Amino acid sequence: MSSAEVNGVAGGIHRFVVFGDICGSGTLDIAGKELHRAAMYAAFDEAYGSVGVEPGTFHQEDRGDGILAALRPDVPPTLMVGRWIDTLYESLRAHNTGRSRRLRLRIGMNAGLVAQDRHGLVGRAVDLAARLCDSAPAKQIMAESPEVDLLVVVSDWLYGNVVAEGGRYVEPAHYRPARIRSKETDETAWFHVPRRTVPPLPGGEEGARTGVGPSRGDGPTPRTGGGDRTYHVGGDLLDVHGNTFHGDFTGIRKSTGAGTAAAAAAGAGEPE
């Protein structure tokens, strides 16, 4: 019987979803993989404990070099984007001190309708959390910024409805947006590196959000800004009307003014 059936809600219940992945696990031998897995689980457990989420009160699946988790609906999402992230970062820092092969994690976060059966979790909210974690910009950030041990990528819905509201340990001004395109996914995602005011997004300057399209998640359509803009993309001129970009590109830079530009990225990722 699925969790949806247990709770009497057809199609699933609204849950906070976390998808974590170890960066570069394909380069490790068996001993290295076991060490990193143990440290990852310890870091997750410490982060759960910091927000009062006790073992056995949430669903968690092993993904070999990663973790997929869905929390109970009564867990405040502000705790997850605040203290949970902060504790995970501190746990990684403590583990990595003095180590030549550090544990580095990409984390995708989303919220939405999730169904659960005896095999695991299913739902668009789960799919998007995985896409955020495995997106090309996320992999490129970790490949090009070896000093970064934790990258958090949240969905547009989660940023607009939870992160942007702020709270203890929540740093909405330290997130930056980039477009991700993978399979059926075409979304704006928000990138965050704890203790850094600006994540090292590929493709130029990071800045104010532009070019946001309709959401394909389980939340409302995201906000859009007003006015048309002109950008230079790879040396070519690109006109943006109604905040809609046409065509694929790897990065954008605003042509005039002192304002910052949005980063929209695709491109090479690191191994696994």
Automatic annotation (TrEMBL):
Gene Ontology biological process: cyclic nucleotide biosynthetic process; intracellular signal transduction
Chain spans, region Disordered: 194-233, 252-272
Guanylate cyclase domain location: 16-133
GO molecular-function term, one example from the UniProt record: adenylate cyclase activity
Coiled-coil spans in chain: none
Biased composition, class Low complexity, residue ranges: 213-223, 256-272
Record InterPro entries: A/G_cyclase, Nucleotide_cyclase
Name under which the protein is recorded: Class 3 adenylate cyclase
Species the sequence originates in: Streptomyces nymphaeiformis
